[in-house]
Amino acid sequence: MHIFSPLSLFVSAHSAVAYGALFIGVFWEGEITLIMAGVFTHLGIFSWPITILVVVVAATAKTLLGYHLGRYIGKAFPHSPLLKYFERKVFYFLPRFREQPFWSIVISKCIYGVNNATLVFAGYIGADFRKYCLAEFISTTIWLGGMFGLGLFFSQTALNISHNFRSFSLLVILFIVGFIVLLKLINLIIELIEEWGLDKEAMK
To answer: Containing domain of residue 86, as a range?
Structure first.
């Protein structure tokens, strides 16, 4: 795909920087990063084997570090404002976390902006590490495949509409923005459902 040759050449010349950015992106904010990884891989800018390796390593590191960070902060700084913030955020979206940590961890991957707090909080409360890892493995496999697949889909769809670099880029950006808006809307619906449930409990 010649229109992407300059970008492909740049990534080839600075592969350590490109894949390092991919690692950090998956580690810190996975959704957009994975979608873009799918786009770049579809275009041949990123290598399939290296991309998959970097993504899996980053997701695994995030899972392990999140849990152990929560354990450390819980022991060293049990009254940390950061933990209190994570606790409020987790229980707001996942009020049954203590009773059902396994499914709460799985579901947290589907709630935009909640999973990072969930990982740390799981370590803080000392959730069973094996169950935690199993829940993360299941949810992360689905999450990685889903986000990466969306990137492939967005890239192919944009190419079907236009092979112009600017038009293609704009279409991909619009697809990603639309997807993020959809995730935010789902979060809002979850918030409304939780508030409705709390109101019902208060009325009893």
So the answer is: 2-203
